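Hi there. Long-time user, first ticket. I'm pasting a complex I've been working with (about 492 residues overall). I'd like to know whether the download I got is complete or cut off, because the file seemed smaller than I expected. Thanks.
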Amino acid sequence: MVRAGAGERDAAQGTAALLWGLREPPSRGPRPGLTVAGIAGAAVGIADTDGLEALSMQRVAAALGVTKMALYRYMAGKSDLEAVMIELAVGDPPDLAGVRGGWRARLEEFARLLARAWQEHPWLPGATVGDRVMGPRELGWVESAVAALDGTPLDGTERLDAVFVLFGHIRTTQSMSTAGTQPWTGDKRLTPVMHGLLAANGERYPALHQVFAEEGSLAGSADNGREFGLLRLLDGLELLIERRTS
Amino acid sequence: MVRAGAGERDAAQGTAALLWGLREPPSRGPRPGLTVAGIAGAAVGIADTDGLEALSMQRVAAALGVTKMALYRYMAGKSDLEAVMIELAVGDPPDLAGVRGGWRARLEEFARLLARAWQEHPWLPGATVGDRVMGPRELGWVESAVAALDGTPLDGTERLDAVFVLFGHIRTTQSMSTAGTQPWTGDKRLTPVMHGLLAANGERYPALHQVFAEEGSLAGSADNGREFGLLRLLDGLELLIERRTS
DNA sequence: TCAAAACTGTGTCCAAAGGACACTGTGTAG
DNA sequence: CTACACAGTGTCCTTTGGACACAGTTTTGA
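Hi, the file is complete. Here it is re-exported in full:
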C-alpha cells in the first residue's frame, strides 16, 4: 500500500535528487566504476528483453560484471532503479512548436510520438503508474502536451485533465497491445480459452456473442482501440473548445 | 514476461475451470475445510485493507487459520488467487435495460457504476490489466457495456473499441485517485516533492508553471479527470454516431 | 467387513528476491 | 603521511512462491 509517511517523503527526496542530478560528486575515495546512467541502461536492456518482472538487482549487477550490493552505492533501492529506468527510456520530449494545425494537430502528433516512444519499451506503460517522482525528461513530455493546448479557451484544470486522460488512454491501449494481451480484444483478439468459454455460454452474453459471431471471432481493432479512442477524445475536446469559443 | 506457451495455455484452462465452476467435486477423501469463495473473500479483505502488494499466501492462510500450503489444494497458485479475487470483487454486473435515454445514458450510467464498484476495492483497477482469464461476472460487465451500444450504427469492432477505451479510462482515473496518487495531479494534486522541483525549474516548463501558478498549485480535478474525460469520450462517440446516422 | 484409493492439511525444504551490515581496499584532503 | 571518505565484496537475514513427502480421513469396490 502506498502510504504518505515521513519515510516516503524522504525516499521521494532521494529519488528526486537522483533524477534531477542534485547530488554533489564525492571528492575523496576510489573512482566509481559505474554510473547511474550505465546502471539504468543495463536495466532497461534487461526489461526490454525479458520484461520488467524479470528485472532484479542480481541480473543488473551481473550484466555490469559487479556484485548486487555495488548498485546500492548509486541508488537507494529498486524503486530508484525503476525511476531512472523510466527517465532513460522515455527519451527526449518532443517539440511540437513546429506542428501546424493548431492544438488538435499538436495533440494528435503528441499522442503518436508518445505511443511510438513507449512501443520500444513494452514495460514502460505498466511502470509509469502510481505515486512517483518524475524526472526532467518525463516532466518534459507532460509540459509538451500541456503546451499543445496553448491558445485554447480551456482553463488550467481542464488542460491538466485533458492531458492526463490522453496519457491514460495511450498507456492503456499500449500496455495491452504489447506486453499483455487483453483477454477480450487485442492483437490475438480473444484468448482461445476465453473464446471457448464465450462460445459455450453464448446465450448468457448475447451482445458479445453477436459481436464476435459478426466477424468470426476477430472483433476489436489490432491497436486495442488506440486510434479509435484518440479520435473520439479529440472530437470531444474539439466540441468543448468550440462551445467555449462561441 | 508474458509468454504464450503450452504451459500458459494449460494454466489458463485451470484458471478458467476455477472461475467458471467447471471442477467436479471430489467424492472420496476428507471434507474440504475451505472453499474457493472463502479464500477469495479473505484475500479480498487483506487487499482492501493493506493493498495488493501486501497480499501473500501466508497472510491469506493465516487469516483462515490454516497453513499456506493448504491453499494450493484449492488453486494452482497466486495468479489463480488473484483471478478469483477479481471475480469476487467486481460484483454482479449491472442491468442497464431499465435506463432510459438511449446508448449515451446507458453508457454513462455504466461508467459510474463501474467506478463505484472499483472504488470499494482500490487494488482492482491495477489488477485487471494484462493477459487474463475473465470470470463470468467480469465478462458480464463487458457484456453490459457492449449491450449498451445496441441500436447504434457502430459495428462490432467499434463497439468493442469503445467499450475497451471506456474501461481503460475508468481504470486509469480510478487507480490514480485511490491507491497511488498521480505525481502531477490527483487528489493531493502535485506531490510536495514534484511541486518543489517544478517551482525550482519553472522556466524549463512554462506551460506547466503557468497552469499551477494560475490556481495556487491546486490544478487538476479531484477525480483525475474522470468526469471530464468521460464527457469528452461520450461527446466524441455521439459525434461519430450522428455522422453515421445522417 | 476391510483394504485400497483418493483426498485434505501439515511440515520441511528450496531458490530467488530485496536489503542490512561489516569489511577490505583505494584515493584525496589536511 | 595520516586520517577520512568512499567503492565494491561477502555474509547474513527475512519474506516470497512453490515442490514434495507425509499423516490422517473419507469413500469406493471387492
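A couple of notes from our side: Residues 26-34, 66-67, 69-70, 73 of chain A lie near DNA strand D (CB under 10 Å from a C1'). Residues 1-5, 184-188 of chain A have pLDDT under 50 and may be disordered.
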